[in-house]
Design brief:
Elements: H1 8-16, E1 18-24, E2 27-34, E3 43-46, H2 60-65, E4 70-73, H3 91-106, E5 111-116, H4 118-129, E6 134-140, H5 164-179, H6 186-198, H7 213-218, E7 225-230, H8 240-250, E8 254-260, H9 267-270, H10 272-284
Parallel strand pairs: 3-4, 3-5, 5-6, 6-7, 7-8
Antiparallel strand pairs: 1-2, 2-4
Length: about 300
C-alpha cells in the first residue's frame, strides 16, 4: 500500500511517524520512526522478504505506547528504499548500507534489534559483522538455520499472469502456504499489505534463506539472542524441536525460543497480543555484562 492511499491502520501509523533517510547506493533507505527519544535504546524492526515496514503494522503501536523509540526501515530493494549499492544480490548486499544507516540514526547507541524472517537472517549477519550495533537480538520466524532438508512448501509465481484477479488467486495461495496459519485472516488487511509489498520487491534472486548462514553467523553474535516463532510456522513444520536445538548450538548466549500457539510464519500479525507478550519479555530480560554496551 503506497503512502498516497493508505488503509486506516496504516494511515494512523503514518500520521504519527517521522520519515528518515540514510544513504543507499544511488538513493536512500527510507526509515519510519515512532515514539519518544528517551533514555531507553531504540527498538529496530527489520521486515521479512518481499515486505516493507508494514510487516510490523500490529507491533509498532504497542511498542511506541510503551514508551519505546521504534525505528523501522524498508530494507534496501524493498518498499520505498533504493536497491543496495550492488544493484542486486541477497541479504549480504544489505549489510553495508543498513549498518551504516543504523549507526547514523542511533548515534552509536546499541539498539534492541528485532528481525522477522529474511530480516532476522539479515540482522544476524549484520551483528556478526558489526556487533556494537545491538545489545540484544530477537529473531522472529527466521530462516537459514540449516535444519530442514528441503523446502516444506511451494510458492507460485504471479507476475506473468494477465489479470489482477488471476494474480490475487496466487497471492492468496502464497499467504496460505507460507504466511498465515488461519486462512480466514487473509481477506482484508493481510492481503492488501501482501499485494502492495510484493509488487515493490526488487530483490528476486534471494537464495541465502535456504542455507545455514544464520546459524553460522550466530556463532559470532555474543549478545543475548531470543527466538519467537508461530507454532505452525511453515518454514519448520515438523522441525521445531530441531530448530530450537540449532539455536542452542549456534548462539553463545541463547535465551530460549517461544512458540506462539495457533500462529504461523507471520506471527506478529496473526497473534499480535501473544507476540507482544513474548517480545516484551525478551526486551526486558537482563543483559549479561559481556553484551552490555560500554558506559
Amino acid at each position: 500500500m503506497s503512502e498516497a492511499a493508505p488503509d486506516a491502520p496504516l494511515a494512523a501509523l503514518l500520521a504519527a511517524a517521522q520519515r528518515l533517510e540514510t544513504p543507499c547506493g544511488n538513493g536512500v533507505i527510507v526509515w519510519h520512526a515512532w515514539g519518544p527519544e528517551g533514555d531507553a535504546p531504540p527498538v529496530v524492526l527489520l521486515h521479512g522478504g518481499s515486505g516493507s515496514w508494514t510487516h510490523w503494522v500490529r507491533t509498532i503501536g504497542p511498542l511506541a505506547a510503551a514508551g519505546r523509540r521504534v525505528l523501522v526501515p524498508d530494507l534496501p530493494g524493498f518498499g520505498d528504499s533504493a536497491l543496495p549499492p550492488t544493484g542486486e544480490g541477497d541479504a549480504d548486499a544489505l549489510i553495508a548500507p543498513l549498518s551504516a544507516g543504523l549507526a547514523q540514526l542511533t548515534g552509536g547507541v546499541a539498539c534492541d534489534l528485532v528481525g522477522f524472517s529474511f530480516g532476522g537472517m539479515t540482522a544476524g549477519m549484520m551483528l556478526a559483522a558489526h556487533p556494537a550495533l545491538a545489545r540484544r537480538l530477537v529473531l522472529v520466524g527466521a530462516p537459514a538455520m540449516g535444519v530442514t532438508p528441503k523446502r516444506l512448501f511451494e510458492l507460485r509465481g504471479w507476475r506473468h499472469l494477465p489479470t489482477a484477479a488471476a494474480q490475487e488467486v496466487v497471492h492468496r495461495h502464497n499467504l496460505t502456504v507460507l504466511m498465515l496459519h488461519d486462512a480466514a485472516l487473509i481477506d482484508g488487511l493481510a492481503l492488501q499489505l501482501h499485494v502492495a509489498n510484493v509488487m515493490r520487491d526488487r530483490m528476486p534472486r534471494r537464495r541465502l534463506s535456504s542455507t545455514d548462514i544464520l546459524a553460522r553467523s550466530l556463532r559470532q553474535v555474543h549478545c543475548p539472542v531470543h527466538a519467537i516463532y508461530g507454532a505452525h510456522d511453515a518454514l519448520y513444520r515438523g522441525w521445531m524441536d530441531a530448530l530450537e536445538a540449532a539455536f542452542v548450538a549456534s548462539a553463545p548466549d541463547f535465551r530460549g525460543m517461544t512458540r506462539i500457539a495457533g500462529a504461523g510464519h507471520w506471527v506478529q500479525f496473526e497473534a499480535p497480543a501473544a507476540f507482544m507478550a513474548a517480545l516484551t519479555t525478551a526486551l526486558s530480560a537482563p543483559l549479561n555484562p559481556r553484551s552490555a554496551p560500554a558506559g
